[in-house]
Amino acid sequence: MVLNKINGQDFKNLITFGAKNLRLNFKEVDDLNVFPVPDGDTGTNMCHTIEGGVDNIRGIESNNLSDIAKPLSSGALLGARGNSGVILSQIIRGICKGLSNKKEVTALELVEAYKLGVKQAYGAVVTPVEGTILTVFREATEHVSKMVKKSSSINDFYQYHFEEAKRSLARTIDILPVLKEAGVIDSGGAGYVYIVEGMLKYLNEEEIKVDESSLTQRVNSGEQETKQIDFSAFGPDDVLQFGYCTEFILRLQNSKVDIEHFDIDNVINILNGDDIKGDSIVALVDDSVLKVHVHTMNPGIVLDKMRQFGEFLTIKIENMALQHNENIGDSQLEENRRKEHKKYTVVAVGQGEGIVNAFKELGVDVVISGGQTMNPSTENFINAFKSLDAENIIVFPNNSNIFMAASQAAKLYKGANVEIVKTKSIAECYSALTMLDFSSDDLTIILGNFREVIDNVTSGEVTTATRDTNINGIDIKKGDYITLIDGDLVSANKDRDQSILKALENNKDIEDKQVLLLIYGENVNEGEVEELITKINDLFPYLEVGAIPGNQAIYDYYFSLE
């Protein structure tokens, strides 16, 4: 088919086919890993992100582009996982801004929307890195803006965009030295190319058959499961203690507010007012759609006051005393709804029973399940924040690929002050948590103490190589045990202990360290740990060596040197 314009259903189909094509190829994107370790997750993260948007528009049959663009944007925003996923959500958000208040667009008008996508994506990254998905999307958009004319079809737009995206992707290996050394193209850029290819397949009327079991099934937003509610949890003689979980979506009305200059802080101030006394507040506005979550004793007042801005599209009010099967990612979160108010709370990301237990023992209020290959979404973080009754929430993402989703959640959440401590590893987090101390009652001092500890920690990881390669002058064979220290691959050996020992021997700061902590994974037994400790003590008698079970997958050891 040849389209000279696209309406809401056309755009919905384009995005859906893009998501399907990425789903079909996400494993190839996952495998485009700089280091030869079995933790590639870029394709998985981007899949979850775009499918979050698709789920939000699945039941919408409107031909109005604006009716599709807004929920697509918000769904992708909340579903965003990993750095590439967050950037993809911002690309979608920018494009959707360009499509807002439009019933249909031509190819020339679509160019302008994609330009907004470039602006939004680059603006969302503190330090944009070229040779990534940012470059691929920008160069493809710049090319299509030169090629598309008044007479061009939507098919022309996506053909030009796809061809340049492929060329740009091929160039990424020469832009980023780390890609060139590893001999791979950028994984985020590759994921984006698959999305555009899928969109072009829709226009060319090609079928995309997807194995729905190839990735965790997402719940169709139009087919939600019925909750099992225990009505006995709130009887005729009970007193309301926990209030109501109140959520709504409201359409801002031009007759009531200046939509273009609408200030979300007005909503926050009302929800924090004396007559509502809201907590766990999440409020965001996307063009003319306002979404709010708040816990309050007075939901009626909330609804009355919010009508000054517009009219409701959906409303949900639940008595928080009722026990129901609300899946928010961690059973601990529902328990936290009953916890006392705290001035300071801690949220950390972790995977493995031992790590989760250790974090809780050290004072973490909520452990979000995740890590490598399991990056939490923006919504996972928001749900964790909502479960806490806190003035300040301190977050340890524990992975550089999770930091952006945590930061995006912190910007969206208005129920507390959220601070992100930029931990890049489980070992860094563990060391910081051992110094957990709120006695100063000064957030600046508390955060400063955490960062001082982290700055003095050397952290390492041990896993198994998935392919032959050469990195940092080290010849690596598939199956070798490789050790990374502070993100750099420093040793490889067929013997796991020797890989670790060589890495420690080559560390220039080892003589200045006093303590080594080993966090061992599910593939390591206690006897092997004891044997490794003996070898370390022989080589480095001045080190105090300890070990705890982490039960983590993929990485046989995390370790920290202090």
In short:
By secondary structure, this protein is α+β, with helices and mostly antiparallel strands. 44% of the residues lie in helices and 19% in strands. The chain has four domains: 5-211, DhaL domain (Serine Threonine Protein Phosphatase 5, Tetratricopeptide repeat), CATH 1.25.40.340; 243-319, ACT-like. Chain A, domain 2 (Alpha-Beta Plaits, 2-Layer Sandwich), CATH 3.30.70; 332-455, Phosphotransferase system, mannose-type IIA component (Rossmann fold), CATH 3.40.50; 458-561, Hypothetical Protein Tm841, Chain: A,domain 3.
What this model shows, in words?
By secondary structure, the chain is an alpha+beta fold. The chain folds into 4 domains: 207 residues, Serine Threonine Protein Phosphatase 5, Tetratricopeptide repeat, CATH 1.25.40; 77 residues, ACT-like. Chain A, domain 2 (Alpha-Beta Plaits, 2-Layer Sandwich); 124 residues, Phosphotransferase system, mannose-type IIA component (Rossmann fold), CATH 3.40.50; 104 residues, Hypothetical Protein Tm841, Chain: A,domain 3, CATH 3.30.1180. It is built from 19 helices and 18 strands. The strands form 5 sheets. It has a 6-stranded mixed beta sheet, sandwiched between helices. Strands 4-5-3-6 form a 4-stranded antiparallel beta sheet, sandwiched between helices. Helix 3 packs antiparallel against helix 4, helix 7 packs antiparallel against helix 9 and helix 16 crosses helix 17. The chain is flat and about 75 Å long. The termini are far apart. About 5% of the residues have low confidence.
